Amino acid sequence: MRRETGSWPGMLLIAGSAFAYSLSGYFTRLIEQDVWTVLFWRGVFGGLFIGAFVAWRQRSGLLDSVRALRGPGLLVTLLSALATICFINALRLAPVAEVMTIHAAIPFLTVVLASAFVGEKEGCTTWAACLVAMIGVAVMLDPGASGNRLAGYGFASAMALSYAAMMVIIRQNRHVSMLPAASLSAFLCATVVLPFASPFAVTTCGLASLAMFGVVQFGLGLLLMTLGTRLISATSSALIGSMENPLAPLWVWFAFNEKPTFNAWIGGGIVMLAVIGDVGLRSRRREPLLSA
Protein backbone atom coordinates (compact mmCIF):
# COMPACT_ATOMS: atom_id res chain seq x y z
CA MET A 1 0.00 0.00 0.00
CA ARG A 2 1.25 3.49 -0.84
CA ARG A 3 2.54 5.67 1.97
CA GLU A 4 0.37 8.61 2.90
CA THR A 5 2.07 11.91 2.02
CA GLY A 6 -0.55 14.28 3.41
CA SER A 7 -1.92 15.02 -0.02
CA TRP A 8 -4.67 17.57 0.57
CA PRO A 9 -5.47 17.75 -3.16
CA GLY A 10 -6.12 13.99 -3.19
CA MET A 11 -8.30 14.14 -0.10
CA LEU A 12 -10.30 17.04 -1.53
CA LEU A 13 -10.78 15.20 -4.82
CA ILE A 14 -12.14 12.09 -3.06
CA ALA A 15 -14.34 14.23 -0.79
CA GLY A 16 -15.67 15.99 -3.90
CA SER A 17 -16.34 12.63 -5.50
CA ALA A 18 -18.26 11.42 -2.43
CA PHE A 19 -20.27 14.66 -2.41
CA ALA A 20 -21.12 14.31 -6.11
CA TYR A 21 -22.08 10.65 -5.80
CA SER A 22 -24.22 11.41 -2.74
CA LEU A 23 -26.52 13.60 -4.87
CA SER A 24 -28.10 10.56 -6.55
CA GLY A 25 -31.14 10.55 -4.27
CA TYR A 26 -31.50 14.33 -4.42
CA PHE A 27 -31.68 14.41 -8.23
CA THR A 28 -33.96 11.36 -8.31
CA ARG A 29 -36.41 13.21 -6.05
CA LEU A 30 -35.94 16.59 -7.75
CA ILE A 31 -36.61 15.47 -11.33
CA GLU A 32 -40.27 14.73 -12.04
CA GLN A 33 -39.85 12.79 -15.30
CA ASP A 34 -40.48 9.04 -15.36
CA VAL A 35 -37.59 6.83 -14.37
CA TRP A 36 -36.82 5.68 -17.94
CA THR A 37 -36.54 9.24 -19.24
CA VAL A 38 -34.28 10.08 -16.29
CA LEU A 39 -32.07 7.08 -17.06
CA PHE A 40 -31.92 7.98 -20.75
CA TRP A 41 -30.76 11.56 -20.32
CA ARG A 42 -28.49 10.74 -17.36
CA GLY A 43 -26.80 8.14 -19.56
CA VAL A 44 -26.44 10.51 -22.51
CA PHE A 45 -25.02 13.43 -20.51
CA GLY A 46 -22.84 11.25 -18.29
CA GLY A 47 -21.52 9.24 -21.24
CA LEU A 48 -20.64 12.38 -23.19
CA PHE A 49 -18.85 13.93 -20.20
CA ILE A 50 -16.76 10.84 -19.41
CA GLY A 51 -16.19 10.10 -23.10
CA ALA A 52 -14.87 13.63 -23.65
CA PHE A 53 -12.46 13.24 -20.74
CA VAL A 54 -11.24 9.86 -21.99
CA ALA A 55 -10.77 11.25 -25.52
CA TRP A 56 -8.80 14.23 -24.15
CA ARG A 57 -6.69 12.06 -21.87
CA GLN A 58 -5.93 9.27 -24.36
CA ARG A 59 -5.76 11.41 -27.49
CA SER A 60 -4.11 9.24 -30.18
CA GLY A 61 -4.38 6.14 -27.97
CA LEU A 62 -8.16 6.33 -27.64
CA LEU A 63 -8.92 3.40 -29.96
CA ASP A 64 -6.24 1.29 -28.27
CA SER A 65 -7.79 1.93 -24.83
CA VAL A 66 -11.19 0.84 -26.14
CA ARG A 67 -9.75 -2.29 -27.77
CA ALA A 68 -7.94 -3.13 -24.52
CA LEU A 69 -11.28 -3.63 -22.76
CA ARG A 70 -11.95 -6.97 -24.49
CA GLY A 71 -14.12 -9.48 -22.60
CA PRO A 72 -13.66 -8.20 -19.04
CA GLY A 73 -14.25 -4.59 -20.07
CA LEU A 74 -17.38 -5.46 -22.00
CA LEU A 75 -18.68 -7.43 -19.02
CA VAL A 76 -18.00 -4.44 -16.77
CA THR A 77 -19.91 -2.28 -19.27
CA LEU A 78 -22.95 -4.60 -19.11
CA LEU A 79 -22.87 -4.89 -15.31
CA SER A 80 -22.47 -1.14 -14.85
CA ALA A 81 -25.46 -0.42 -17.08
CA LEU A 82 -27.55 -3.00 -15.20
CA ALA A 83 -26.48 -1.59 -11.83
CA THR A 84 -27.38 1.94 -12.92
CA ILE A 85 -30.85 0.92 -14.09
CA CYS A 86 -31.49 -0.94 -10.83
CA PHE A 87 -30.06 1.87 -8.68
CA ILE A 88 -32.27 4.65 -10.08
CA ASN A 89 -35.35 2.41 -9.95
CA ALA A 90 -34.55 1.54 -6.33
CA LEU A 91 -34.24 5.23 -5.41
CA ARG A 92 -37.64 5.92 -6.99
CA LEU A 93 -39.36 3.06 -5.13
CA ALA A 94 -37.73 3.00 -1.67
CA PRO A 95 -36.46 5.62 0.80
CA VAL A 96 -32.97 6.88 -0.06
CA ALA A 97 -31.60 5.97 3.39
CA GLU A 98 -32.63 2.34 2.95
CA VAL A 99 -31.23 2.06 -0.57
CA MET A 100 -27.92 3.57 0.56
CA THR A 101 -27.71 1.11 3.46
CA ILE A 102 -27.77 -1.74 0.94
CA HIS A 103 -25.34 0.23 -1.23
CA ALA A 104 -22.90 0.52 1.70
CA ALA A 105 -22.73 -3.29 1.91
CA ILE A 106 -21.28 -3.61 -1.63
CA PRO A 107 -17.66 -4.12 -0.42
CA PHE A 108 -18.79 -7.13 1.60
CA LEU A 109 -20.76 -8.62 -1.28
CA THR A 110 -17.55 -8.23 -3.27
CA VAL A 111 -15.76 -10.35 -0.67
CA VAL A 112 -18.37 -13.10 -0.97
CA LEU A 113 -18.28 -13.16 -4.78
CA ALA A 114 -14.48 -12.99 -4.94
CA SER A 115 -14.22 -15.88 -2.50
CA ALA A 116 -16.80 -17.97 -4.34
CA PHE A 117 -15.71 -17.40 -7.94
CA VAL A 118 -12.02 -16.43 -8.02
CA GLY A 119 -10.80 -18.08 -4.81
CA GLU A 120 -9.66 -14.94 -2.96
CA LYS A 121 -9.00 -15.62 0.71
CA GLU A 122 -10.09 -13.27 3.47
CA GLY A 123 -9.34 -13.23 7.19
CA CYS A 124 -11.76 -13.90 10.01
CA THR A 125 -12.12 -10.20 10.81
CA THR A 126 -13.31 -9.41 7.29
CA TRP A 127 -15.86 -12.23 7.38
CA ALA A 128 -17.00 -10.96 10.78
CA ALA A 129 -17.41 -7.48 9.26
CA CYS A 130 -19.45 -9.06 6.44
CA LEU A 131 -21.75 -10.68 8.98
CA VAL A 132 -22.14 -7.42 10.91
CA ALA A 133 -22.98 -5.55 7.69
CA MET A 134 -25.60 -8.12 6.72
CA ILE A 135 -27.14 -7.79 10.19
CA GLY A 136 -27.28 -4.03 9.65
CA VAL A 137 -29.11 -4.48 6.34
CA ALA A 138 -31.52 -6.94 7.98
CA VAL A 139 -32.25 -4.45 10.77
CA MET A 140 -33.01 -1.75 8.20
CA LEU A 141 -35.38 -3.82 6.03
CA ASP A 142 -39.11 -3.57 6.69
CA PRO A 143 -40.77 -6.91 5.75
CA GLY A 144 -44.19 -5.30 6.13
CA ALA A 145 -43.43 -2.55 3.63
CA SER A 146 -45.59 -1.77 0.61
CA GLY A 147 -45.16 -3.58 -2.69
CA ASN A 148 -43.31 -0.66 -4.27
CA ARG A 149 -40.92 -0.42 -1.34
CA LEU A 150 -40.20 -4.15 -1.43
CA ALA A 151 -39.59 -3.84 -5.18
CA GLY A 152 -37.13 -1.06 -4.33
CA TYR A 153 -35.31 -3.43 -2.00
CA GLY A 154 -35.15 -5.94 -4.84
CA PHE A 155 -33.72 -3.39 -7.28
CA ALA A 156 -31.22 -2.23 -4.64
CA SER A 157 -30.09 -5.81 -4.03
CA ALA A 158 -29.67 -6.43 -7.76
CA MET A 159 -27.71 -3.17 -8.00
CA ALA A 160 -25.41 -4.20 -5.15
CA LEU A 161 -24.75 -7.63 -6.65
CA SER A 162 -24.03 -6.10 -10.07
CA TYR A 163 -21.59 -3.58 -8.61
CA ALA A 164 -19.91 -6.28 -6.50
CA ALA A 165 -19.45 -8.51 -9.56
CA MET A 166 -18.09 -5.52 -11.46
CA MET A 167 -15.56 -4.82 -8.68
CA VAL A 168 -14.34 -8.42 -8.75
CA ILE A 169 -13.71 -8.17 -12.50
CA ILE A 170 -11.95 -4.80 -12.17
CA ARG A 171 -9.70 -6.16 -9.39
CA GLN A 172 -8.74 -9.08 -11.63
CA ASN A 173 -7.90 -6.71 -14.49
CA ARG A 174 -6.21 -3.77 -12.79
CA HIS A 175 -3.93 -3.23 -15.78
CA VAL A 176 -6.88 -2.17 -17.95
CA SER A 177 -8.39 1.34 -17.65
CA MET A 178 -12.14 1.00 -17.14
CA LEU A 179 -12.98 4.64 -17.85
CA PRO A 180 -13.91 3.82 -21.47
CA ALA A 181 -16.19 1.08 -20.09
CA ALA A 182 -17.89 3.67 -17.84
CA SER A 183 -18.64 5.88 -20.83
CA LEU A 184 -19.86 2.93 -22.92
CA SER A 185 -22.06 1.69 -20.07
CA ALA A 186 -23.75 5.11 -19.83
CA PHE A 187 -24.59 5.04 -23.54
CA LEU A 188 -25.69 1.39 -23.29
CA CYS A 189 -28.03 2.32 -20.42
CA ALA A 190 -29.54 5.13 -22.52
CA THR A 191 -30.00 2.77 -25.47
CA VAL A 192 -31.65 0.03 -23.42
CA VAL A 193 -34.21 2.34 -21.79
CA LEU A 194 -34.96 4.44 -24.90
CA PRO A 195 -38.02 2.35 -25.98
CA PHE A 196 -39.64 3.11 -22.59
CA ALA A 197 -38.53 6.74 -22.28
CA SER A 198 -40.05 10.02 -23.47
CA PRO A 199 -36.89 12.05 -24.08
CA PHE A 200 -38.57 14.89 -25.97
CA ALA A 201 -41.31 15.44 -23.40
CA VAL A 202 -38.85 17.23 -21.11
CA THR A 203 -38.96 20.94 -20.35
CA THR A 204 -35.89 23.15 -20.63
CA CYS A 205 -35.65 23.34 -16.84
CA GLY A 206 -36.03 19.57 -16.59
CA LEU A 207 -33.32 19.04 -19.19
CA ALA A 208 -30.95 21.27 -17.21
CA SER A 209 -31.55 19.18 -14.08
CA LEU A 210 -31.01 15.97 -16.06
CA ALA A 211 -27.75 17.38 -17.46
CA MET A 212 -26.60 18.15 -13.90
CA PHE A 213 -27.56 14.63 -12.85
CA GLY A 214 -25.49 13.06 -15.62
CA VAL A 215 -22.53 15.42 -15.59
CA VAL A 216 -22.12 16.32 -11.89
CA GLN A 217 -23.46 13.32 -9.97
CA PHE A 218 -22.22 10.60 -12.33
CA GLY A 219 -19.50 11.99 -14.61
CA LEU A 220 -17.76 14.39 -12.23
CA GLY A 221 -18.08 11.94 -9.33
CA LEU A 222 -16.26 9.24 -11.32
CA LEU A 223 -13.65 11.66 -12.64
CA LEU A 224 -12.78 13.07 -9.20
CA MET A 225 -12.55 9.57 -7.74
CA THR A 226 -10.24 8.43 -10.56
CA LEU A 227 -7.91 11.39 -10.08
CA GLY A 228 -8.00 11.37 -6.27
CA THR A 229 -7.19 7.70 -5.76
CA ARG A 230 -3.84 8.25 -7.49
CA LEU A 231 -2.77 10.87 -4.94
CA ILE A 232 -3.60 9.34 -1.53
CA SER A 233 -3.50 5.95 0.12
CA ALA A 234 -6.20 3.38 -0.50
CA THR A 235 -7.19 3.61 3.18
CA SER A 236 -7.88 7.34 3.03
CA SER A 237 -9.66 6.95 -0.29
CA ALA A 238 -11.98 4.25 1.07
CA LEU A 239 -12.76 6.10 4.29
CA ILE A 240 -13.41 9.49 2.68
CA GLY A 241 -15.36 7.89 -0.17
CA SER A 242 -17.66 6.10 2.27
CA MET A 243 -19.12 9.51 3.19
CA GLU A 244 -21.42 9.09 0.19
CA ASN A 245 -23.66 6.68 2.07
CA PRO A 246 -24.63 8.86 5.07
CA LEU A 247 -24.66 12.06 2.99
CA ALA A 248 -27.21 10.88 0.41
CA PRO A 249 -30.11 10.54 2.92
CA LEU A 250 -29.21 13.91 4.47
CA TRP A 251 -29.73 15.84 1.21
CA VAL A 252 -33.24 14.42 0.66
CA TRP A 253 -34.05 14.98 4.34
CA PHE A 254 -33.06 18.64 4.11
CA ALA A 255 -34.56 19.26 0.65
CA PHE A 256 -37.68 17.08 0.66
CA ASN A 257 -38.24 16.26 4.36
CA GLU A 258 -37.72 12.54 3.67
CA LYS A 259 -36.73 11.49 7.19
CA PRO A 260 -34.94 8.15 7.65
CA THR A 261 -36.80 5.68 9.85
CA PHE A 262 -35.39 4.62 13.21
CA ASN A 263 -34.49 1.21 11.76
CA ALA A 264 -32.71 2.92 8.83
CA TRP A 265 -30.60 4.95 11.29
CA ILE A 266 -29.66 1.85 13.29
CA GLY A 267 -29.13 -0.47 10.32
CA GLY A 268 -27.18 2.12 8.33
CA GLY A 269 -25.03 2.89 11.35
CA ILE A 270 -24.19 -0.79 11.83
CA VAL A 271 -23.17 -1.16 8.17
CA MET A 272 -21.00 1.98 8.29
CA LEU A 273 -19.29 0.76 11.48
CA ALA A 274 -18.54 -2.53 9.72
CA VAL A 275 -17.06 -0.67 6.72
CA ILE A 276 -14.92 1.69 8.82
CA GLY A 277 -13.81 -1.10 11.16
CA ASP A 278 -12.73 -3.37 8.32
CA VAL A 279 -10.86 -0.57 6.51
CA GLY A 280 -9.07 0.36 9.73
CA LEU A 281 -8.03 -3.22 10.53
CA ARG A 282 -6.82 -3.82 6.97
CA SER A 283 -4.77 -0.65 7.14
CA ARG A 284 -3.05 -1.82 10.33
CA ARG A 285 -2.28 -5.18 8.71
CA ARG A 286 -1.21 -3.53 5.42
CA GLU A 287 -3.76 -5.61 3.48
CA PRO A 288 -5.44 -4.52 0.20
CA LEU A 289 -8.78 -2.82 0.72
CA LEU A 290 -12.10 -4.20 -0.44
CA SER A 291 -12.64 -1.24 -2.72
CA ALA A 292 -9.19 -1.28 -4.25
Q: Would you kindly provide a written description of the structure presented here, covering whatever features stand out?
A:
- The structure is a single chain.
- By secondary structure, the chain is an all-alpha fold.
- It has one domain.
- It has 14 helices and no strands.
- The chain has helices at residues 8-21, 24-30, 35-58, 62-67, 70-93, 96-104, 106-117, 124-140, 147-172, 179-193, 204-228, 234-241, 244-256, 262-285.
- Helix 1 (8-21) packs parallel to helix 12 (234-241).
- The radius of gyration is 18 Å and the shape is globular.
- It starts with 7 loop residues before the first helix and ends in a 7-residue tail after the last helix.
- Mean pLDDT is 86; it is low at 1-6.
Secondary-structure element pattern, one letter each:
HHHHHHHHHHHHHH
Identify low-pLDDT runs: 1-6
Mean pLDDT: 86
The outline comes out as: globular
Helix proportion range: over 70%
| Rg over alpha carbons | 18 Å
Summing up helix and strand content along with how strands pair, one would put the structural category as mainly alpha
CA(first)-CA(last) distance: 10 Å
Supply the number of helical segments. 14
What profile does the largest beta sheet have? none
Strand content: under 5%
Number of strands: 0
Total count of domains: 1
